Amino acid sequence: MNKPLILVVEDDSAVRNLITTTLETQNYRCQIAPTGEAAILEAASYNPDVILLDLGLPDIDGIEIIHKIRSWSKTPIIVISARSEDTDKIDALDAGADDYLTKPFSVEELLARLRVTFRRINDLTNDNIQNSIFINGDLKIDYAAGCVFIKDKELHLTPIEYKLLCLLAKNVGKVLTHTYITKEIWGSAWDNDVASLRVFMATLRKKIEKDPSVPQYIQTHIGVGYRMLKV
Ligand code: CA
């Protein structure tokens, strides 16, 4: 099998070297881009498996790069941001990024995010073969029948809880922003919708999680959104 190719977009050479050295010892191949212009060009020429994108680049804003790449490519993009503000992460995710890392991050954290991303790519491929049933640990969704089971015991979900669970399941491994979720569920994204989303998420968790205070399936990204984890 070919080693997966990662496009590392980062203008800080020290950070870039740390990332590429780490990835190369873990059997990934790297292509580097120190500017936004190089990133767009190389994403098009090399067709990488994953793009690691620093948001703060000297020439083009990271969010704009995501929009450009998303106009022709579905390659997973993991954003690396020094800015700790939630709005940057939300803008990046809404523009089409798949995940984010906040600087400073550990090498283990970076590798874990890559593993999640590759697992998600593989699941998407497998889903094409068997897409009528979703299985994640003890959780099973039968899309055709519209039924949800935990350990083969059927759960009684409200229509909104069901829609919410399916949305998270279809994007397993990916962080979905509050705005994205509320638009998908209610067609709008008012502050009230986000408040409702919290309520529905709490009732859904009570039904699917063994211990809703330590959720196994649905992870909260405070101020950003939610992600279903592959268990
Ligand atoms: Ca930078």
Structure description:
This protein is an alpha/beta fold and 231 residues long. It folds into two domains: 5-118, 3-Layer(aba) Sandwich (Rossmann fold), CATH 3.40.50; 131-228, Arc Repressor Mutant, subunit A. It has helices at 13-25, 36-46, 62-70, 86-95, 107-127, 159-170, 178-186, 191-208; strands at residues 5-9, 29-33, 50-54, 77-81, 99-102, 133-136, 139-142, 147-150, 153-155, 176-177, 218-221, 225-228. A five-stranded parallel sheet has the order 2-1-3-4-5, sandwiched between helices. β3, α3 (62-70) and β4 (77-81) form a beta-alpha-beta unit. α2 packs parallel to α3. The relative contact order is 0.10. The chain binds calcium ion.
Task: Furnish the topology, listing elements before pairings.
Blueprint: E1 5-9, H1 13-25, E2 29-33, H2 36-46, E3 50-54, H3 62-70, E4 77-81, H4 86-95, E5 99-102, H5 107-127, E6 133-136, E7 139-142, E8 147-150, E9 153-155, H6 159-170, E10 176-177, H7 178-186, H8 191-208, E11 218-221, E12 225-228
Parallel strand pairs: 1-2, 1-3, 3-4, 4-5
Antiparallel strand pairs: 6-7, 7-8, 8-9, 10-12, 11-12
Helix pairs in contact: 2-3, 3-4, 6-8
The structure holds calcium ion (CA).
